[in-house]
């Protein structure tokens, strides 16, 4: 671990990044409603200043070369690990996800993992021609200043997905966290900046006007955004004037198809966590499940058993692995969709009504059976702990159902016959299709969506290329 890293407690993390008393916006604990701290409210003028500073710092940062930048990024990963527990506690309170399970500690650990991978993944020049006709070589250079606009569901991990490759390639970054989860991201950036040179990475905490300006600013060369399809379209429009390159990871409504030869007992846990990791608040979560009629009742029953047995509650309680919805708007969406499905005759197997005994924003894991395509719970992205399970008898119909929506982020196929599963997977319109799993990501495996789920790739070599510009030297 680098000798320049320091460990702070959660209170110190917040104190370093929050606004002065009375000058910020209260940020509440998602589970209890208590005030955690006050987020700065930066303005468009603050953003303009940040971009100017990042632009001025970029040539020297690129000039350090890959080796020195990698060294600094590895030291930054050490700094994250030195502050992992207080970061996880702050994240748990602000976002709502528990410390335990695939949640807050997992997310902080993933930040260090992805940062190290971005630092050490080689991207060598590619020789295109080297013969009697001549010589041509393709290499990648920094794009310039990257605007990184992050979400509230995995605020630290997704911020690192944007920041790490950009810094590695010699870009400087201006990051805008979600208005719902600014403190944890500001704390993460503050920790990284213990190691990085001044103005290489700057966080700006503001509202939608700041995000709109970031996408359209003439000195922004690349925009990375994770969020809704509707906001992604506005970013595309806003970037028309500056011709910023875009990586957009947009909304998902991932389908899973359980083939008739699957083993319900063997796949139940994978299905459950594919759907309900982070209490369902994950872009590439399993959001609609198509199960063959011969297995339907067994799969529904197995999921219901897991739902009843999985503890939900305040994230700082070590025994919980599911938390609240992060904000009232998302809670209302989930409740509306579940209520609508019930009113149409769907069978609510577990959950279905708010868990007010746990807190204001808690909604229990809700398994919804006897539901069909066309119902809003199936057709709209619920982004919460409610899973519609749809019965099918012909796999061709299941494939058609999976492909019929605008979303195309992820999908999955569940079967004991891997060859048969791969045949179905190849026909699904999604950027990633998992077999006998859902949502697993690897820092070296490219990830991105198709159709309304956006475009551009993150992770690995392709992710490095996406925050760079190609240059051919010929002759």
TrEMBL record:
Signal peptide: none
Domain Aldehyde dehydrogenase: 25-467
Residues of the active site: 249
Record's keyword annotation contains Oxidoreductase: yes
Name assigned to this protein: Aldehyde dehydrogenase family protein
A Pfam family of this chain: Aldedh
PROSITE patterns assigned: ALDEHYDE_DEHYDR_CYS, ALDEHYDE_DEHYDR_GLU
CDD domains tied to this protein: ALDH_AldA-AAD23400
GO molecular function terms listed in the Swiss-Prot or TrEMBL record: oxidoreductase activity, acting on the aldehyde or oxo group of donors, NAD or NADP as acceptor
Family recorded in the similarity comment: Belongs to the aldehyde dehydrogenase family.
Alphabetically ordered keywords of this record: Oxidoreductase
